[in-house]
Each structure stands twice: as structure tokens, then as C-alpha cells.
Amino acid sequence: MAISAKTVKELRERTGAGMMDCKKALTANDGDMQKAIDWLREKGIAKAAKKSGRIAAEGAVAAYVSDDRKTGVLLEVNCETDFTANNENFRALEKKVIEHIAKAKPADLDALNDCVIDGKKVSELVTEATATIGEKISIRRFVTYETEGKLTSYIHMGGKIGVLVDMTGGSDELGKDIAMQIAAANPSAVDRAGVDASDLEHEKEILRKQALEEGKPEKIVERMVEGRINKFYKEVCLIEQDFVKADPGEKKTVKDILKGEKVLRFTRYQLGEGIEKKETDFAAEVAAQAGM
């Protein structure tokens, strides 16, 4: 099948592999992006690509933590342009909704849309905001935490990334450091016990094929895989990651800075993660509006 230059470019951006290698990978896998990524990794040409890729949408991620640090909410609201994400009406809607979630604790999006704020359903408030602002507004996702420990939130770049973390205790500074670590390093689990079994097996299969591609005897491949999987754990497990705020040359992991405290759970939202953003030909759009 014909592989478009756009698809090759996307694979190159996601893996860092060369253009011809990307084209070969896509051709060998009938244009399937994920299979092409795996193919490149098996050949030892590329590292793991982030699941979120480079897809984005506009809007903002917001966080709420109660004064006693026992209730917390992380919320993503989407819109069509970055300009609207900074609109006072958009931010006011987001604030009103997140505070209501903290109070009412709806079970899911359907329950949230049926919630009533100031005499109107949340779904009606969103429809009104869409009409007032002139762009489609949508509440995409939220999570609510209740804890006996201590909650901390962190919002990066005005809402591009948001984190909510639940810990057994510790100082406010420690909580912020952990939340910033999660925002920066994007772990998928607190520790090894929390790593998804299918993700682990997928990674092991990639490592097996890498070792075989390197010409290693099958009898030692499994031992090599077990040795190399430790690097995978260091990337995806929060407590095993290198602490991002450590001084240059200082070897310190997140577990080192916790000093006995424990991270119980966390949620990290990246704005627009997994949403296919519509591409627009700006020149054509202007011409159409001008009646050209």
C-alpha cells in the first residue's frame, strides 16, 4: 500500500527513527502506526513511543483540593481554540463544575451532566457556554479522590497537564515535588505491583525480539529480558524514577525523597490526550470566509 509522507513524518516524530526506516516499518505493517513502532523497536531502531503520541486538543485541565486536603478533583474541559481556553466564561464554567464535583461526587460523566447547579443541569450550562462563547465546549473526564491521607495537585502551563496525588502524609513541599515529578516524567504506576500485566508482557516480547535480532542464543534470551526489564520498570514506576529536581550529578530516586511516606495513587491528565485534532487549511478557510 502507498504510505503518505504525513504518516512517515508522524512515525519519525514519535520514534526518532530515520525517514527510510520509518517508511520500511510502515510498509512492512500495512500502514499500522502501533505495529510500525513495535517493528522499529524490535529491530533496535527506536525507543518506546509515548502512548499519547503527539495528538492534542484545546481547553484546560483544572484541579481542586479542599482546605483539609481530604477531597480532590481533577477535571478536563475541552474547547476548539487556545484563545477560548483563556476566556473568562470558559474558566468560570470550569471552576463552577469542578467545585460542584467535589461537593456532589457524581459517579461518572452522565451523572455529572444530570447534576443541577443554580437551577440548571450541567449539560444545559455547557450548551449555554457553547452558544455564548461560540465554540463547542465539552466536559471530557474527571476523577474524584477521598482520602485519609493528604492530597496535592499541580497544574502545568496553565492547564496543559494536571496531576492529583494521594499520599500518606509529608510536607506540602514534598507533595508538590511528587506531583511535579508525575507531570514531568509521566509514570504509569506507583510501583512494580501496579504495572499493567499486558503492558509488561508486551514490553518483554519486544525485548525478546530485540535480543534475537542481535543474534543472541535463545537459551540466554530470557535472562537478558529479565535484566533489561528493570530499565522498563525504572521508566514507568514512579518510586523507581530518577528524581527530576535532583542536583546535577546527584543520584536520587523518588523513593529516596519520600523518606518513609508512601504515594497511594495518582492521576495525570494531559490536555487533549488521544483526541484527534482537526487540521485546518488556514488560507482556504480565510478565502472561504471572504467569499473568494
Question: Quick recap of the structure?
Answer:
The chain has 292 residues and is an alpha+beta fold. The protein has helices spanning 5-15, 19-28, 33-42, 82-85, 88-104, 109-114, 122-133, 172-185, 197-213, 218-236, 254-258, 282-289, and strands at residues 58-65, 71-79, 116-117, 120-121, 138-146, 150-156, 161-167, 263-270.
Describe this structure in words.
It is a single chain. The protein has 292 residues and is α+β, with helices and mostly antiparallel strands. Among the domains are: 55 residues, Helicase, Ruva Protein, domain 3; 140 residues, Elongation factor Ts, dimerisation domain (Tetrahydropterin Synthase, Chain A). The strands form three sheets. A three-stranded antiparallel sheet has the order 1-2-5. A three-stranded antiparallel sheet has the order 6-7-8, with helices on one face. A hairpin with a 4-residue loop joins strand 6 and strand 7. Helix 1 packs across helix 3, helix 5 runs antiparallel to helix 7 and helix 9 crosses helix 10. The radius of gyration is 22 Å and the shape is globular. The two termini are 37 Å apart. The C terminus is likely disordered.
